[in-house]
Amino acid sequence: MNLSENIGQLTPFIIMVVAPLLLIVIISIKRNHLFSWLYTLLTFLLVAITALLAMENPLAEIPLFALDKFTYFYTILFSSAGFLIVLTSYRYFENRTEQKDEFYVLLVMATLGSSALVASRNFVSLFLSLEVLSVSLYALIAYLRKNELGIEAGIKYLVLAAMSSSFLLFGIALIYLETGTMDFGILAESLGPNLSVWILGGFALIIAGAGFKLSVAPFHWWTPDVYQGASSPVTSFIATISKGGMVGVIIRLFSSVKGYEYPSLVISISIIAIASMFTGNILALLQNNIKRLLAYSSISHLGYILVAFLAIPQNGAEAATFYLVAYFITTIGAFGIITILSDQDGEPESLDEYKGMFWKKPWLAACFSLVIFSLAGIPLTAGFLGKFYVASAGAGAGLWILLTVLVINSVIGVYYYLRVITTMFSTEKNEKTLPDLKLLSGAGLALLIIALAIIWLGILPSGIIELITRSTF
Amino acid sequence: MIILIISTLMAGGLLAWFLSKTNAHLSRIIALISLLLCSAAFLYYFITNHEIILASSGWLEEIHFTWIPQFGISFHMAMDGLSLLMIALTLFLGILGVLASWKEITERTGFYYFNLLWILAGIVGVFTALDLFLFFFFWEIMLIPMFFLIGIWGHENRKYAAYKFFLFTQASGLLMLLSILGMGLIFYQNTGKFSYDYIDLLTVQPEGTLGLLLMFGFLIAFIVKLPVVPFHNWLPDAHTQAPTAGSLILAGLLLKTGAYGIIRFVVPFFPVASHQFAPYAMVLGAIGILYGAVLAFSQTDLKRLVAYTSVSHMGFVMLGVFAFNELAYQGVVMQMVSHGISTGALFLLVGMLYERTHTRDLTQMGGLWQNVPKIGAVGLLFAMASLGLPGLGNFIAEFLVLSGSFQASKVITAVASIGLVLGTIYSLRLFQRVFQGSMHKDWRISDLSTREAIVMGSLIIAIVWLGWYPQPVIDIVQPTIQLVLDQMAMHATF
Known about the structure:
The complex is a heterodimer of chains A (473) and B (494). Chain A is globular, with a radius of gyration of 21 Å. Chain A has 20 helices and no strands. In chain A, α12 packs antiparallel against α13 and α14 runs antiparallel to α19. With 473 residues, chain A is mainly alpha-helical. With 494 residues, chain B is mainly alpha-helical. Chain B has a domain at 275-494. Chain B has helices at residues 2-19, 24-55, 81-104, 109-128, 132-141, 143-153, 158-191, 198-201, 208-225, 234-241, 244-269, 271-297, 302-321, 326-357, 373-387, 393-408, 410-435, 450-468, 471-491; strands spanning 60-68, 73-79. The interface between A and B is medium-sized, with 28 and 33 residues.
């Protein structure tokens, strides 16, 4: 391949590599929060635009990475998500006493890791990208070092992520042992109709490693603590971009090795999906901390995505991607609102602090309700279309048991989502005052974009479905 | 027309919400004006086109756009006689609902009318949607504002009631969604393209166990709404706790969406399966009639009493729909309309009494006739309507249903007609406990105001008209009934 000819295809990644390095240099000369903030916004914007341009003529074959439409679609998704997360969090960091600028460096690095993860078509690149992502996350989670819970969450994540990486590595090694290849394409060819014990073991370990990143049951134990301990912008990142990268690469791996043809894989993923849906939703019922509630709800949402996963021979990849888009917007919205409502003292984590919010801050509460309705999958919102897409893919693949479980869980889910809503609409008096949102601010703009996107995807999704259909396998 | 009504209602709702900051009274007026505008447009449409409407057996006012082509989902709405009738009922009760809340709702007025108008918009959508995805869409749109209506402006136990209402309907609605997906999938397997269009799905006709399962998905959503006896549990709570207009709309309109759904979707989609299920369904209907009546009799909460009468009356709908003959179907439609009016009126009466006495407890009332003879007279009339006195709409309805179902099953019909006797008992008890007997407290309360008199007067005119001259209603829905029965005759062998 000729670098000078294909520079356009590589630009998004080059920007994500160069931008944070340059920012480090700039920080070492002079710190300025506003500058770093604008710089990062611009970085994400440029990445999204160049990826959109590159999507038109994707690069066919390079070793290790596949720069196809799928990769570019996910890169656009990640950089837009990063853009929105950064947009909401300016004042959040202004209110903190810690150094602010390195947050942006780490955030772009982690996004690079996630995008490269989706692009991986080889176990080597998969592992390298995953480490770029994880190492940035260790620092990000413990970023607010005066917050004890943050430090605890950081350590917890470090230990568990390192362990899951080693599982993953061992799994890769087992598969290499049997097939002698790290490349997904060659691997697919060398797998027979029956999987040997080594390969099965390898896949099991890979599922465990990936399951940790996706926080699906039974690999979900870290989720609530890390969600609660990390600062909301970082939580938002973990919930979306970090998981999205893993979903992307798993879709690529699963569809290139035709994993859905092996009953053992299908059964184990089905069990994980069912377990995640139930665990997430049932444990969320009892939460009074909004961040933990969202953590458990994200476990169940990943369970829904896994249902789409098993429908890959139908249009499951598209359904999973669409669901992911809806989940991204909604989750960023939810954590964005928590970020906006944070002040010097901390974040409003307890549900009680949201009591009667609708009557005091109708706009913000209306946005939050919209987000919650989308999480619950109520029509007019992106979440409903996502669920519908997953269900129709699942129905096409004949996964009626999983769909029944999905329906049962949607009903359980509605219960705790409604609890958030009724709290906001509660007519009881609440002395606690939450900070105001200035409409003409980055956060205001971000919320507007998110709210419009939720409704747009919920009412007129055909454009984005078209784009997804063209860019998935 | 349809779009005009729905968008006027939605826009009116938004406007009422936004303007309530400046003036709370303004939102009431906006809500009323937007409903009156819709009604005027509707009347104009009806008067200019009534010959076409009565003559045609097809769809009127069809609107068809592609919406999400990847799933074969289109924005397809149309009306036939049944939809037309139900929209008329919706607008009528909608206006009364706004008038009934005029004084009752003093807090958060703007958001209240927003919810009220959006429920009505959702209901009109349900009655006109011909794409099943769109239908489900509207099905849920009417649900959320209702949740808020009960949860925010309801009585003492409102949160519990709102949750219960939402969870029951949501759970059953999602099962219906699965069935809708199943229907779409079978259509895809048969023809190679996706569609959720009503007309397309009519050709699917799934058979055997699959048909039965898919039918249950639809049926469960509708019989929870209707409600039919083991699934009626949400109703007494929701009706009792909702504000007056909320109960009016719940009883008058939301329950009718269940009946509408069975007639429009369940029977034509699954004639064979519904024929198999019919005996059980009729038994459930009969149980509902008796059970609702017995429970209504034993309530001490006035509003709960009226709520249980709904369970009893809706049993007739279930009984009639699964009798599959013309008489019964005419009766079902009559029951949908006249129950909407009579029970709506009873809920309004309860609301008026509650506004004055601040209690719904039957044991505290009594002897109110002396104080409020006008309310008493109206109460007497609607208690009579509820027990099925000839000359009022409900009599025609119940008589038609029973004579229709008699042809289908003599035993079940005989049992069900005991319900009429029980109906007499609870209706008279209601009237006697509230208005007659000795006074337990020294009530000093005022009689009907002009606004209330207008509301009740229009309801009285409607119920008497239905009782004396029901033919227009029957004529207008005749094509729909014929269509359903033809579909039945074509596929199911008796």
